[in-house]
Amino acid sequence: MATRMRLQRYGKKGQPYYHIVIADGRAPRDGGFIERIGSYNPLTIPATIDLDMDKALAWLQKGASPSDTAKAILSYKGILYKNHLLKGVAKGALTTEAAEAKFQLWLTEKQAKITSKVNQKAQESKSEFKKRLEAEAKVKEVREEVIAKKRAKLQEKEEKAAETEEAVVAPEAEQQQAEEPKTEA
């Protein structure tokens, strides 16, 4: 029986969520499995991977072959590297303490890379947000200028209309005043 380490899909359409399982190589993707060793959520940033490292390492040493995606996940978490170091210990090339020290060093470097990427993404999103706000402010200023020009034109038209109205009303008022004394007399 060839055992495979692979992903089983769960979740709704467009919202995948995977279980990392050990299954018989002939079993369907979402069929029966021998053991569940972790989960993988690709929707979060960075992707959330919960994996039992000891079980995964034990299955690798027993000969379970990972699928391409499972292999990428194992590599990301450092399980393949630890397996490589343990093979070196078995051959006598390394001591267990040296192998563990190398693995811990690798883990700290990996964690530093991940946190720096997350921080970089956060700063990029902040700078992108600031750029959008500045662009929006410029657009708002342009709109306000256009509206101010329109209001100024309307006010000029109203003033001209009021002046012409006064010019028309003033001679009529003078004529009425001139006519009034005649009727009284």
Give the tags.
alpha+beta; S16 Ribosomal Protein, Chain: A; 185 residues; five-stranded mixed sheet
Oligomer: single chain
Largest beta-sheet details: 5 strands, mixed
Cross-sheet strand order for the largest sheet: 4-3-2-1-5
What's the total helix number? 4
Please state the overall shape, judged from the principal axes of the Cα atoms: rod-shaped
Number of DSSP E strands: 5
> Which fold name fills CATH's third level, the topology of the largest domain?
S16 Ribosomal Protein, Chain: A
What does this 3D model show about the protein?
This protein is an alpha+beta fold and 185 residues long. It folds into 2 domains: 91 residues, S16 Ribosomal Protein, Chain: A (2-Layer Sandwich), CATH 3.30.1320; 91 residues. Helices cover 66% and strands 18% of the residues. A hairpin with a 2-residue loop joins β1 and β2.
